[in-house]
Amino acid sequence: MTIGLNEFLIVSALLFAVGFFGVLVRKNTLVIYMCLELMLVASTIALVAFSRFNGTLDGNVFVFFILTVAAAEVAVGLAIIVALFRKRGSVQVQDLNALKN
Amino acid sequence: MPNVLFYLFAALTVGSAVAVVFNKNTVNAAVCLLVSLLGVAGIFALLDALLLSALLILVYAGAVVALFLFIVMLLKPQVETKKPYKKMSVVAGAFAAALLGLGVFSFVSRGQFSSAPATEAFAGGMKEYGAKLFTTYLLPVEVVGFLLLVAMLGVIVLSKKFEEKEEIK
Q1: CA distance A15 to B18
Q2: Is the Cβ of B109 closer than 8 Å to some Cβ of chain A?
Q3: Does B159 touch chain A (CB under 8 A)?
């Protein structure tokens, strides 16, 4: 049995579901952020697979841009988390309830 | 042989992603994320995207995971005595993730995708990337460069200490 498009898409879906589960379940903001990165990478696997099986390079170039934006996003997000830690003294989501009531 | 490699990389990717989710120690989670990203780089290499595979290792493993580890060190996270997740949210999260996974799975299993690669000689070298990036995608390249500049400025502003403002609170 050869590896076709479906197998790559299934891996991508599994990785996305695992990352989604982590975002919903975990309480540490840093780990939630790591799971967000996993979801982003899962979507890029689907893009590269579609691009490869379509025979064009456009999906790959799109992933190229996604990688760039992801790097910028990680830098800004982690800076926000550090600022949050300075302000509130914690990165656990149950302590970040300033909008409650 | 590519079949074995595919299953190896897929198992590595998904297995260490699960380890990221269920690890209590944040440093271990970051290292598991690194292993998972290496698996993704292998999958990219199997899809003939060698440049993207190298870039993924450089950008993610070299910069992003190192940044995560650095921030974990900086925040010196308190020892978690409580469980890192609630039982109720595990049930709800598993249900949501299974729903999402099943949705994509049914899409994949019923779709009319051709399983064979379209072209055997898939041109994905540096030359083709360069031609694309500087003709068709010239405007996005400029925009992304500007975005990187804005992100850099934003990080500098965010991580600066505003002491007089912190006292007001």
Answers
A1: 9
A2: yes
A3: yes
DSSP string, B23-86: -SSHHHHHHHHHHHHHHHHHHHHHTT-HHHHHHHIIIIIIIIHHHHHHHHHHH-PPP--S-SS-
Question: pTM score, two decimals?
Answer: 0.87
Q: Which residues of A touch B74 (CB under 8 A)?
A: 82
Contact B71 A83 (CB under 8 A): no
Look up residue A33 and give its two tokens: 């952020």
ipTM over 0.85: yes
User: Which residues is A28 bridged to in the sheet?
Assistant: A92
Judged by CB atoms closer than 8 Å, whether chains meet at B159 and A11 is answered as no
User: Per-residue pLDDT tens for B70-120?
Assistant: 998 888 765 565 666 777 888 888 888 888 888 877 877 776 666 665 555
Q: What is the dihedral of CA B22, B24, B28, B33, to 10 degrees?
A: 40
A8-36 pLDDT, tens per residue?
888 999 999 999 999 988 888 999 999 99
